[in-house]
């Protein structure tokens, strides 16, 4: 076998997954930021993956065992993530070492020792907020999940009507459960992930890229507007639910939130979707292209040319082109939608990506549809 880094012959492999080979500890260390993404075992390994992806953990075990559940808001979670980034990425504490610190119950002590004589803003924050890592316990599956669920439900409960507070969440209509889940995300400081239907329903799919190099989009700004609506303006779930059913969430935001921020909604042409109302296939295209495990919708397959691909390689190539397009600051999903229904996707993509070698056959679709009398 060949070393995964330098391709020298070797018989040594990762003792955990047995799929990656390394000729030396040096090569294994070089590949660690990449390999840890594919080879998580303990919660510390999953945390390391989040560190290298610069993402706040969503895995319940990681959140419970490494203090994220003890943070009061997303700002504190970001600072705690920064603390772990310093430990794992820069001080180069291994996940096995971090796990042993946690297991011994002395995580705080060893973090202080690791950061000794180092200047870090996140560490200074931690010294004033050690409580987030106090009393950490082992994640116990369903038992812990129930504890976390009860804790999270308590956050959302004040936004429910008196009647809905007395009934199981599972008994609420599906549309209201959608809103309930969305409230939980917003109250915790998150925005929906690309894979979630809420990403489409509540308008995040229509947010554009501000900086593609750093994967910066307008989504956090929309999330801030929802936080203003829910936390500052105290919008109850029933009122939001009514707007969701009628497809008037944008009107609700504009009516209740800061007018300057709401002007941005119009300028950026943010689009939300009412419960089970139709949506443009371009947003499912974005979801398919940008998501990690999103299946190809039939409408996207037809509208955006994937039906023209004969091989998986061709499909991947077309998907990569759309990814470059979507991450371009000039891209507007509504413009692509208009090009789609006019049968002019090839021209539109070429105007945004003039240096890209494009083949017209991949962008053919049945549009424009002929009128039938």
TrEMBL record:
UniProt key word Zinc-finger: yes
Domain MYND-type: 3-39
GO molecular function list: zinc ion binding
Keyword terms, alphabetized: Metal-binding, Zinc, Zinc-finger
Protein known as: MYND-type domain-containing protein
């Amino acid at each position: 076998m060949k070393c995964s880094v330098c391709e020298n012959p070797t018989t040594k492999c990762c003792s955990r997954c047995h799929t990656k080979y390394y000729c030396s500890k040096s090569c294994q260390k070089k590949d660690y930021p990449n390999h840890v993404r594919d080879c998580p075992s303990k919660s510390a390994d999953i945390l390391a993956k989040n560190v290298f992806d610069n993402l706040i953990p969503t895995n319940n075990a990681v959140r419970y065992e490494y203090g994220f559940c003890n943070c009061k808001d997303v700002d504190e979670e970001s600072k705690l993530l920064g603390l772990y980034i310093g430990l794992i990425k820069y001080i180069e504490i291994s996940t096995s070492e971090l796990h042993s610190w946690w297991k011994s119950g002395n995580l705080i002590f060893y973090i202080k020792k690791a950061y000794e004589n180092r200047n870090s803003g996140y560490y200074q924050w931690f010294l004033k907020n050690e409580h987030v890592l106090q009393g950490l316990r082992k994640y116990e599956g369903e038992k812990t999940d129930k504890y976390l669920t009860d804790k999270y439900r308590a956050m959302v409960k004040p936004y429910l009507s008196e009647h809905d507070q007395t009934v199981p969440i599972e008994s609420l209509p599906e549309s209201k459960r959608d809103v309930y889940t969305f409230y939980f995300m917003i109250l915790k400081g998150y925005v929906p992930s690309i894979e979630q239907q809420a990403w489409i329903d509540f308008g995040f799919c229509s947010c554009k890229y501000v900086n593609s190099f750093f994967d910066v989009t307008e989504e956090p700004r929309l999330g801030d507007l929802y936080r203003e609506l829910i936390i500052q303006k105290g919008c109850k779930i029933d009122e939001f639910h009514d707007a969701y059913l009628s497809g008037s969430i944008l009107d609700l935001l504009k009516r209740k939130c800061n007018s300057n921020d709401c002007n941005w909604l119009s300028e950026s042409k943010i689009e939300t979707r009412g419960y089970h109302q139709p949506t443009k296939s371009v947003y499912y295209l974005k979801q398919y292209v940008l998501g990690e495990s999103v299946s190809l919708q039939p409408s996207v397959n037809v509208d955006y040319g994937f039906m023209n691909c004969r091989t998986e390689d061709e499909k991947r190539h077309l998907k990569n082109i759309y990814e470059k397009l979507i991450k371009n600051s000039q891209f507007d999903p509504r413009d692509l939608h208009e090009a789609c229904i006019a049968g002019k996707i090839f021209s539109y993509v070429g105007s945004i990506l003039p240096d890209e070698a494009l083949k017209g056959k991949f962008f053919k679709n049945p549009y424009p549809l002929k009128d039938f009398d």
